[in-house]
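User: Let's play a game. I give you a shape written as tokens, and you guess the letters that built it. Ready? Here's round one.
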């Protein structure tokens, strides 16, 4: 069935973009990979944070003793630094260790402040700057001018629209994404699971309390991210972000490879699948299920079908 639907794909191009922020070329792949560590962290957000912290200077040292490209304090590095490049050493001065460590630390913080009301990413950034204790104490971003400026600056930078001059890929890439997704049929659903490299353990916890920490697999957007990554196309991590990076498609113009989104509005999108044609999608539906083929009307709140668009960026 999948092979037949892929064969039937038309000629309309499909492409996506995740890292639209200008990043030094030697660090782009590090930021792209580390920026998909957990749902709360995106490549753009991680790139914006590193831009703010050090301007991507791996030798940066602050007056208070913060070190390296991610500006870790020595005590924080001791507990949260990881060996990102697998050479047996944890080196705060090596971006191959420091950038993945920054992403993991952000994810750890996101889990620590997940019960604090307000915007989850803003709370995570505030905790990175001022500590989780301050965020919990004040029930959100604390009333520190430095921290409030830090959060607003990074958020604004991360959400800067990509420069114009987009280029669309061929249908071959859409077909590749479908084929890759089809190879994952039967993989278990994992909340927060899946990245550009394939299935992975997820995070805790879904709104209904389901944890992916002990399950290797995909959530819905993790599957689409992986499928398109194998086709040479980068997508943001969450379903809502993937919709924001895409161009809506009219009902009569849906083609295999388009992304199918579910939710009541653009900001409340909660699910995404890959269109196969003929009214079918490949998706990772929900906790307790596996990657499978579903009818497009598998959920009642189908919001839109969209085609991701890539944009050229100028490296600094």
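Assistant: Ready! My guess for every position:
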């Amino acid at each position: 069935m999948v092979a037949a639907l892929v064969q039937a794909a038309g000629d309309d191009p499909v492409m996506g973009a995740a890292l639209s922020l200008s990043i030094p070329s030697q660090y782009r792949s590090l930021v792209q990979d580390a920026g998909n560590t957990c749902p709360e962290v995106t490549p753009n957000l991680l790139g914006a944070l590193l831009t703010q912290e050090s301007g991507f200077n791996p030798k940066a040292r602050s007056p208070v003793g913060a070190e390296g490209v991610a500006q870790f304090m020595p005590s924080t590095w001791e507990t949260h630094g990881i060996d990102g490049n697998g050479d047996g050493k944890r080196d705060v001065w090596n971006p191959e260790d420091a950038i993945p460590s920054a992403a993991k630390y952000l994810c750890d913080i996101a889990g620590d402040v997940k019960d604090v009301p307000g915007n989850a990413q803003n709370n995570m950034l505030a905790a990175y700057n001022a500590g989780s204790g301050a965020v919990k104490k004040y029930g959100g971003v604390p009333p520190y001018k430095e921290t409030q400026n830090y959060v607003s600056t990074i958020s604004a930078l991360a959400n800067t629209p990509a420069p114009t001059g987009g280029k669309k890929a061929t249908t071959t890439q859409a077909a590749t994404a479908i084929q890759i997704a089809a190879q994952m049929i039967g993989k278990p659903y994992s909340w927060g699971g899946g990245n550009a490299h394939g299935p992975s353990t997820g995070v805790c916890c879904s709104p209904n309390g389901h944890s992916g920490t002990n399950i290797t697999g995909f959530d819905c957007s993790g599957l689409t991210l992986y499928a398109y990554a194998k086709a040479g196309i980068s997508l943001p991590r969450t379903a809502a972000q993937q919709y924001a990076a895409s161009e809506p498609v009219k009902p009569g113009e849906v083609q295999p490879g388009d992304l199918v989104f579910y939710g009541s509005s653009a900001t409340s999108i909660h699910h995404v699948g890959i269109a196969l044609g003929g009214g079918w999608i490949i998706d990772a539906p929900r906790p307790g299920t596996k990657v499978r083929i579903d009818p497009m009307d598998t959920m009642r709140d189908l919001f839109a079908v969209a085609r991701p668009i890539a944009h050229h960026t100028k490296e600094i």
